[in-house]
Each structure stands twice: as structure tokens, then as C-alpha cells.
Amino acid sequence: MWNGFKTRRVTFEERNAVIIFPKGKGNGRMILKTEYLDAFPNFDIQMLEKGYHLIHLKQRSRWAPDEEIDILARFVEFCSEELATSKKCLLEGMSCGGLQAAKFAEKYPQLVSVLYLDAPVLNLLSMVGLGECKDPSIEMFWREIVATYGVSKSTIINFRKSPIDNMEPLIANNIPIIMLYGNADGVVIYEENGKVLENFYKENGGNIKVIAKSMVGHHPHGLDDPMPIIEFVENNWKNEE
């Protein structure tokens, strides 16, 4: 069980995964929560109550290397067939989960209906000491990113595999985005991450809703009342084309 909902735990391509079922009849839609499944579940619980399935795959690196995103896409297709749902899903990404969600949407837009980002990492250069982040965690971030991408201090400045380096597919495929951030976030600096995506969408006529949380740091994610997120998702859901 997960917060009172029936679960099915599976192994998919040697990775642990879980499918969480609504209590009643499903509505034919899925939410892929890319990271931190158990974190701040208020939104997820309300969506399960509305008939959505919730799926999650534990990736080997939270920093979204291409091979992990490819496996994640195959997992979405697998779950769509297993659950008889739309292949287009809601992507929910918090922090590094936002990195995974954004890269997934850019590479596999045909599998995405709506993108929900929450204090998302969208610029890896911002997370390795080349921006304004002064959080002590930055040393851990650096070690993890080196292990994931094989970069060094002399090569990281040329790194161009962050979501902000490939935003055009999001606009080209008309993917609606709702994004939350705390204006006191000192870990994932909004101006170096989400703000770049916000500006790009507004400059290019994209559909984006941004909610700034006053005097809030990196945590908590979500909203006490997630109804604004729910309404955006349901009003902008893209059916199969």
C-alpha cells in the first residue's frame, strides 16, 4: 500500500518500479513522478482519488543521463499497455526530478501531455558551483555529476546537455507547463534554472503558468492546496493525437 492505495511493485530493466492504483475506476490517465516518490504527496493523493494511476521508476542517477531517460520512456510505454491508459502522461518533477522530467519531455514529447515542474533543476552548470548556489550540498552534487557524465573542472564549462540547452521541442510540441518555485530557494537558484524556461516560453508564445511561493526555500515542494495545479493539468490535458 502507498498512502492507502494499492500498489504493484515490478522490476523493469533491472530497476525497481511501482505502479499505484486509484481506488475506483481509472480514468485512463497516468502520472509519472520522476524522483522522490514519497516526498510531498498531497497532489499525488488527490490525483489518485480522481482516477489517475501514479507510476515511478527508480533511476540509477538522479542527474538524468540519456540512457536513463530512454529506459524511463520504455517504462511509460510498458505501463500504458499494462494499464490500458493514454501513452501521453503527466510528468511530475521536483528538484532533480524536474531535470529528469524536462529532459524526458524534450526527448519524448509524444509521451507527454502536461509538464509539472517544482523547483526544477534545469541547468547543471548552476549545480556545480558555477552559479550563485552556495549550499554545502554542492560538493555532493559535483561528485554525483562527475560520476554520471565523466566531466572535469576543465570540461564542465562546455557542458550543453541541460534542459535549458534544448527547449525548442517543448514549444514545437505545444507542451503546457505549470511550474512552482520558492523565491528564497538557495539550492536551485530560480534565475539560473526555471526562470530561463519561463522566459523562453513567454518569448515564444508557450503555455506556461508559474507560481512563486513567497519566503519559501527549496522545501517544501507543492502547495498546501494543490487545486491550482490540478486545474491546470485537467484544463490543459492533451489527448492522443
Could you characterize what this model shows?
The protein is an alpha/beta fold and 241 residues long. It has one domain (7-122, 163-236): Rossmann fold (3-Layer(aba) Sandwich). It has seven helices and eight strands, in the order E-E-E-H-E-H-E-H-E-H-H-E-H-E-H. The protein has helices at residues 42-49, 66-83, 96-107, 138-149, 168-172, 194-203, 227-236; strands at 7-12, 15-20, 30-33, 53-57, 89-94, 112-118, 177-182, 208-213. The protein has an eight-stranded mixed beta sheet, with helices on both faces. The longest helix is centred in the N-terminal third of the chain and has 18 residues, at 66-83. The termini are far apart. The model has no long low-confidence stretch (mean pLDDT 96).
In short:
This protein has 7 helices and 8 strands; from the N terminus they run E-E-E-H-E-H-E-H-E-H-H-E-H-E-H. With 241 residues, the protein is α/β, with parallel strands linked by helices.
Blueprint of the fold:
Blueprint: E1 7-12, E2 15-20, E3 30-33, H1 42-49, E4 53-57, H2 66-83, E5 89-94, H3 96-107, E6 112-118, H4 138-149, H5 168-172, E7 177-182, H6 194-203, E8 208-213, H7 227-236
Parallel strand pairs: 3-4, 3-5, 5-6, 6-7, 7-8
Antiparallel strand pairs: 1-2, 2-4
User: Class in CATH?
Assistant: Alpha Beta
The parts where pLDDT drops under 50 for at least 5 residues are none
**What's the N-to-C terminus distance?**
34 Å
Q: Write the CATH homologous superfamily.
A: Alpha/Beta hydrolase fold, catalytic domain
Number of helices: 7
If you average the pLDDT, what whole number results? 96
Give me the Rg, rounded: 17 Å
Q: How many structural domains does the protein architecture include?
A: 1
Looking at the overall shape, the CATH architecture is: 3-Layer(aba) Sandwich
Helix percent band: 25-40%
Which strand order do you get reading across the main beta sheet? 1-2-4-3-5-6-7-8
Describe the main β-sheet briefly. Answer: 8 strands, mixed
CATH topology group: Rossmann fold
Shape descriptor: globular
Structural class: alpha/beta
DSSP, total strands: 8
